[in-house]
Structures are given as C-alpha cells and as structure tokens.
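Lab notes, practical 5.
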Amino acid sequence: MSVVSRIDERELAIELLHSVKKFFKFRELESLLGISTPMIWRYIHGEVKPSVDRAREIISKLLSREVLEMIKSRVLQVKEGGIVNVYPLAYSVEILTIASIDALLWASKFSPTCVMTTEVDGIPLATLIAKRFGIKMVVAKRRRELGYSNFYETTYMSYDPPELRSLYVPKDLLDEEDRALIVDDLVRSGRTTLALVEIARKAKAEIVGLYALLSVGDRWKQAIEGVVPSYRTLFEV
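Output from the prediction step:
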C-alpha cells in the first residue's frame, strides 16, 4: 500500500487544528477557516470528525503561506545582525507536528525509503517525518559510531561557525536501494545539504528532495541547484 493511500486527511486536519490552536485564538481560527468556533472546538476535542472535503479545506488553509507567515511572526526570533534563533521552532512540539504533516503531504509523491539528517537540531523533525512515512532514519554524525567498522564519510566547511566538519554514516545503514529525503532544521548556505548528498552518492543512494523547517535567504538554492531535484521549507526569512 502506498503512502498516499494510507494518509487519513481527516485525522491530519484534526492534528493540525490541535497544533495551530497553540498560536491562534478560536475567533481567529473561525475567521481563517470559515468554520464556527463550536464546531472547531468539537473537532479539536474529538467529538466529531470533519468530512474528507472539509478536512482538505482545513489542511489547505492551515498550511497556506498566509497562516504560516502569521505563525512565524509569533514564534520566530531574529536578533540584531540577522542572527536567527531556531530553538523556538526546532524544539516546539506544535511546530514540529505542523512541519511533519506538511512534509508528508509534499514528499509522499517521491516515495522516500529513508530520511537523512545530521546531528543535532535536525533530529526531532527528521524523527517525526520518518515515523509518518514509516521509514528508517539515517543520521550523519560528527564522529564514528561505536559498533560499526565501515563508514561513508565526507568533510565540508560549515557556515556557522566556519570550520571543517566531517560527517560519518555506517555503510550498513544506506545503500543503492534507498531513496533519501534530506531533512534539516535550518538551511542557509546549502553546505550541510551538499555534504549529505555526497554521502548518499558514495552509497549510490538516490536523493529525492530536501525538506527544511526554516530557510534563510536564497544562497542555498543556488548551491543545491541541479543536485537536489526538489525542495520545500516551512518558513522563510
């Protein structure tokens, strides 16, 4: 059974409502969705499920750029000098739930067999996305993991702080049968993404796309152009 056929849009709509409610008052949701507050309350508390058509409308509106921009303005902290505080996004259960649903709906057409990420901040989102797809997660670490003897590895110059970093993935975890979806919390320069692409290339695995919680600027797009076939970010700065 394909991932698409397993998606329960009615359940996803209720999950989204649960999570988005953290950032909006009922009267705001009523205005955004065109659904009465009592009915929204009943959906959230499980008294009734929306129809499939209404569920699709709810999902479409809650994942619209308009609503995501409103959430971003209420959560994201950009400090002096353009420093972005990712923590309120990367470790918010509600934000991670919204992002994992968005990733599921966007990437299901690629039929990924694994989610690739790096330690540390990308792991929470990657875990939720892998769970929704029912696929394995491959974490590239900055040290060789005990218990494994053979690794795919690569070295790259990180953006912040600027330093040489090495990443390692046990060869037992990734091979030519895999279709990998790269997941990260923040994409700015594209360097980490390219490092993961290089590891996948060494394993002869296929990269199907990149999903990130937050992107800063457009330089990363130029970096991965022609290398990553498709990408999506939940929030943009």
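Observations recorded by the TA: The chain has two domains: 3-75, 90-236. The chain has a mean pLDDT of 93.
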